[in-house]
Records
---
Amino acid sequence: MSYIAVDGLDKRFTVRKKREKGILREKTVIHALQDVSFAVERGELVGYIGPNGAGKSTTVKILSGILTPDGGDVTVGGRVPWKERREHVRHIGVVFGQRSQLWWDVPILDSYSLLKDIYRVPESDYQKRLAQLTEALQLGDFLRTPLRLLSLGQRMRAELCGSLLHGPELLFLDEPTIGLDAVSKLALRDFLKEENRRNGTTILLTTHDMEDIAALCPRVMVLGHGKKLYDGALPELLSRYDTQRILTVRYESGAALPELPEGCAVTQEAGDYKITYEPGKMPTAQLIATLQSAGTIRELTAQPQNIDHLIAAMYREMDL
């Protein structure tokens, strides 16, 4: 049996509209999840993506035992999360990007000490694990600082440390890099890859930052309107929507850009020509041959669209 096994998962929420004068409050049923099935093996690092309201956080809350589904079967490590919650939470860690498990007004080291007691971590194991995480996440300078005095990046590193102190075999990350600067994001990605490699920690990552997914997750699942729409490799998914590319060319002095086929958009900046084209209509090799006919090329670079643009195109095509 797979480490995480989800079969026909269904979750509905009843929403009551605001009462208007003389009218009874109406109820609307929202299907957050509809017949969602997937399996995750132990040690996998999987991205779980979709637009706002797709059902990502609902899935994480069910898998972590916070919510009870209305239908379907779920096991994590052989346990049913919401039925065996006390035993289940000993084996998992959860980081919500907009919520904290640490205490706001006390030094984070005191929060860690309390988490050690909650999870009943032996003192020797706690000290060893804390030393490893402190070094890996660079927490040494503010272990005795209250959480409220830390920057957002420091708080996220502190939260991640707190979720890993008891050595969970499964880590849920819900928007862990939200609001982080580029340096903090890179450091956090490196840490997660090492945690997965060294300890075999299974990681389920939900995020809107597609660079996180591209850097971390060999496998990605796409959720939309509460339904699973895709499950596979990210490059294969993006290749379906890689309909536009950018080619930048600089000629030796004196050469001018030749006439290009219809559909190519050209902008010029500081001697460089930036050409946006559709590889399905104009093969890259053919476009380069046309450019070479105009003169000697000094520099030429080709690149696909930004991953976020490709995912946005995918959402539009799937009507998400």
---
Amino acid sequence: MSAAPRAQLSRPPLQRMLRIHDELRRNTLTNCTKLVKMLEVSRKTIVRDIAFMRDQLDLPIEFDPLIQAYRYTHPVNAFPTVHMTEGELLALLVAQRALQQYRGTPFHRQLEVAFEKLAGGLRDRISFSPADELRAVSFKNIGLGRTDLAVFNTLSNAVLKQQAVEFDYRKPGETKKSHRRVHPYHLANRENSWYLVGYDREREGLRTFALPRIADVDVTKETFTRPDDFSPEKFFASALGVLGGSGNYRVVIRFAPAVAERVREREWHESQEMRELPDGRLELHLHLGALMEIEQWVLGWGAAAEVVAPVELQDNIRKTVRALSALYLPGK
């Protein structure tokens, strides 16, 4: 036997077997003559497909000589297209819980449909209660971003079709909106919120726009070509979270022993390096393009984090600490 027939024997086309499954599930008179005509393949192929369904997928198919046709010996609701262990299915269910960040976007419904198809194909092979199993697993994201679904849909289509957009945008801390003309390159979910990365035509450079602050989006007839050298990974490489920059900062932060373990067990940035100190403290080294986000992150650790470098970050922290001291002075 040649290699080609062996490959076909081990992996019959799924579409063909699904049609056979539908016929058997409806309890219609399903024999080779009917299937050959319906699927436009040879009798040998039909016999091979049925053998695969019976022997490899454990479907209860038998040939009834009284009616000269194939039938299911007991009802089968779903075609077992996916083979998973109970643990693998549990992992899939856990992943579904983690997909809440996509709620309010077209991706959420698509992911739900995909999950239902996968889980449906396993109901005849695995018996356990997902609800009971998942009581021990939960997810909590603080500060989930709110995104207008209409804005998201419009921008996602513009990104895919490479069409220029115009919209009003309000920067943080400002009350007035500015009109922007942008070539949308990429949509990113970072720090539990959605952002658009695009080329701002008036400012002649790449900019990041938070979707909750975008309004009145209009897709123009202008098309553009996304540069070959653009990539989300490259764009966000210098950012701790969302805000990158053109700077070249080697950041060193020293953590107290009380929090060193919590820092050590997380991946904070692709560039991170950690150095253990003899007294139990931990040094975290990062290479960033901007300091705004790292300043806010360091302040979140309170007195347990000390900025060693760069000097610019030390100065920023000092200014913020003085402002906090004035705000919380006794008797104020």
---
Amino acid sequence: MTHTYDLIVIGCGGFGSSVMFHAAKRGMRVLGLDQFPAAHDRGSSHGDTRIIRQAYFEHPDYVPLLLRAYELWRDLEAKSGRSLMQICGLLEVGPPAGEVVTGVRLAAQLHGLPIENFNAAEIRHRFPGFAVDESFEGVFETTGGYLQVEDCVRTHIELALKHGATHEVAAVRSWTSNGQTATVTTDRAAYEAANLVVTPGAWATSVLGPAAGLPQLKVRRKVLAWSPVTSNVYNETHGGVGFLFELPTGIFYGFPSIDGRTLKFAEHSGGETVAAPLSVDRSLRESDRAPLINFARNHLPHVDPSICRHCVCLYTMTPDGNFIVDRHREFENVHFGVGFSGHGFKFTSAIGEALANLAADGRTDLPLDFLGQRRFG
């Protein structure tokens, strides 16, 4: 027996869960398929928190998407009665001519966003939890903060179910489309829908296959770490902020101490390329530990440079580090979002809405053209 829907979503992590919610809210009959349960820890959307920010150093064209994302996160909080987004401010530090400081200032200028500028001495005075090289400068985004990542995924799925969606834990074996109807076969059943949205995270290449014409995507293994704090300067309740450092050794970031006992931080740059997401090594290696401890010793003076907790997540990298959100080049009823390159979660509310609108109407008001795969030829 084949089950029929208006929309099938393959992959129900950060993006797919949002697509499910926005499509179901519109009255579409939605099926979400994922090989793991909701808010699992096998992919890219776990580890308690994700940074959210507006003055986007990667590319100023992301800013309109972020402004919509902020609106939708607040709307999701109102609909669910849950606290999902905390605005605590974000300090971004680096050489004045570097990618981060320059990019933040450009995005803020082009879009009229509020930021504060600091030299090294001012950073050390205003933010005593950080040690900063004398040649560095900083920008502070008052609108920056963090999202409760697993709660965001769960909330999107739970509200989608309340609007009539179905969520199945099943491994997708294959899918086909004739441009009018998509058929998806799992290890449990076969399903049909007028539209298909594919948001498979680290499994993008294998799920979409060569017909999609994707560029080469590389999956990177990334370690998130928690270390004990020795002072309350990082505590969220004492004015602790999110942070991001551009250093000669890489880009590192972290969060305020939410529990008052530990601080979460990680390296955004680098990462080992993995061939099989299901078999990634999730242990903490010495090669993982060394750069994190070195960062803590040099720049987090009130953190015990040991690691008391860790987890491993996956970045799915495009060649230029920007997302791919587009329609399948062969099938008008198939859309996808892939290659979020380690900085995508904050956008899930807005891009999920956009993908749902593309499936329902064939269009979206959000400016997504710069994320199309045509840029790769």
